[in-house]
Amino acid sequence: MKKIVLNLFLIALSGSVFAQDAVNYQMPPKAIADLLLAKPTPGVSIDSKAEWMLFSERNSYPSVEELAMPEYRIAGMRINPNNYSPSRQTFINNFSLKNIKTGKALAVTGLPSPLYAGSVSWSPSETKIAFTQTTQSRVDLYVIDIATGKATKINKQPLNAIMGGGATWVDDNTLLYRVATKAASLAPARPLAPKGPTIQQSLGKTAPSATLQDLIKSPYDEQLFEFFATSQLVQNKGGVETLIGKPAIYSSVALSPDKNYMMVRTIKKPFSYLVSAGGFPSVLNITDRTGKVVKMLADLPSTEVRPSGYDNVQNVPRGFDWRDDMPATVVWAKPLDSGLIKKNVEYHDEVVELSAPFNGQPKELFKTKMRYGGTSWGNATLALVRENSRINQTSKLSRYNPTTGALETLYELNTTDAYNNPGNPLTEKNKFGRQVILTTDNGTKLLLNNTTGASAKGDLPFLAKFDLNTKKSEILWRSKEGSFEMVTDVLDPQKLVLLTRKESQKDAPNYFIKNLVLRVADVQITNFTNPFTQLEGVKKEKISYKRADGIDLTGDLYLPKGYNKEKDGPLPVLIWAYPREFNSAADAAQIRGSQDKFTTISSGGPLFFVTQGYAVLDNAEMPIVAKEGKKPNDTFVEQLKLNAEAAINKLSDMGVGDRNRMAVGGHSYGAFMTANLLAHTNLFKAGIARSGAYNRTLTPFGFQNEDRTYWQAPQLYYEMSPFSYADKIKTPILLIHGEMDDNQGTFPINSERLFNAIKGNGGTSRFVFLPYEAHGYRAKENILHMLWEMNTWLDTYVKNAKPTVAK
Question: Residue 360: how many CB atoms within 10 A of its CB?
């Protein structure tokens, strides 16, 4: 591998000031590196009969050279210009099969080498598995025959995966997919000189736009988008490819339940410079299987003119979908309030349907008092309708009878109320092969699966029966305390045979078959072992503590292997967090997470540093709660301080944390939190802020869960911006950012400008710019170096911090 140099803009730790240094990639301590590079356990996909398991193995991390491959960033997408696929994918590198009933493992033959697989899907009968194979020059489609364990390439023309990879199964021998229409080498060449300036204009229409990245910026970008996004729809039946319709920019293609029609969305010009491809003007058609247009459903404008504010929508039809319980019926919603949620009307949305042959008028099904959020279909007398209010953090589920039209509320709750979440209805395949609501007890009850099961004792997943008449739930099974077990599938709803995934602090996650009726011993069907042996002996505890204003908080505390409080005394601490907004103080106080989960490593998490002698408080709750009729963010900084003080006091009172050696850190909104805490308090010795947004005026049409614009609340935007108080940031802060951050709002200029502001005001900071990285970091060399930076920073300013001298 050729040597790649990492550019770091920094103030050297010695205190000397440099404009820029070139630093080679560094390695963190061995314990940290070994944790990061440990081979993860395979992904598991199990058929609905629990007969076959597919294991998918992935490499831990790509190299920085892989990230450095050619890439176009246009229309909100990142495109590999050599093979008609998205860049920056995470691929599967090996497949294997196991027969659950016999226990026999089966190696998959015929796999391409090296394997870069994705878009895995089972056939309708679950006897075959399709996947894509991406090479430097093309994307191909393979099918694994489970009976033989052999993989075979079935396409002739290379796939175009730009607007959606993979294939759609029609039956066990027929698939639909999109192919490239021209060789990638024929892409338009960048002109040496433009034909003229790039011009945008506003002619009086309101167009509030989120601060998206990678947008179209020039006529040349438009040409590139049109070239790479254009594809040809193809049917492959028994290896024979047949063209369907004409080449177009296919945004989505959805097959009707009876397989006779397709709902096809195609993008048209003019392309927008303000929104991503998903918001470009488009036409939605119903076609037959040959591609002939049967009905134009909608001609939709660009989303540029969508009104700002949560729960506001464009005044156009939306949410088009097939009814899963009917052969060919399309359902969609229309706003009754011109798209403005604050308009005083009884109903805000109307939901309508249109059935084949699509030559009649849409029929009204029902109206909703909140924003329509979708329908789960069951049968002729049962569907479940969701309504949501993001502003009020409220969700409602209603029972709908498609035959009578009756709509009856089953329950309504806060979206932040984890304790009272009843779970999600389980589904089963109907005669069309579509997933529809599963009922028991002669159609009177639902099976609800809650894979979190939040409770005052921590997360305890459960399976329940919900009575549609009494609207009451009866818990059939719940994870036992001391472990974390959740239902991943119900193999037999009548005999209550379940597939579960079980883990504990000491036991790695594995899959089991559980029979609730016979109550025989569980059958373990996987045998994964601990890939993170370096963490054996690390103590994990869910701790609870109280904020000064009475709100209960929690966090996950990790203590080093062999730590003895009496012998070793208080430790240096890293607190890692991410703020969340709540309208309800009671919801904010709920316990989230489980201390009985197996400890796994995430490359973006803080647990690495428990191997270096730190106490780590991960997932430290940082709720921002609405108070006295105000919105949560009206007291954002004040509440951050209360949260941080409560965590520090708890760790100090426990005797495990040294309040004079505390660090705080976070990623994205957690980085924003970190910079604010350092700007407004002296609670910490150091901070680590990764890929954050620090000047809220750069996101003027709202951010996170704040829907007021800058012009509606300029003082709020100023006060919530740590950049406004950069002259107050004297606590050492390590700023890290991906050079090619793609996240909404967290443009790299945020870290560049905050660093310059801190530097200009005499503060202590270090800015690390990771080459080729997006919002989440992926390259092995970059992540290892990031961990070296974090460890060095913590050791310098926290573990070995100089005693505070009283003034």
Answer: 9
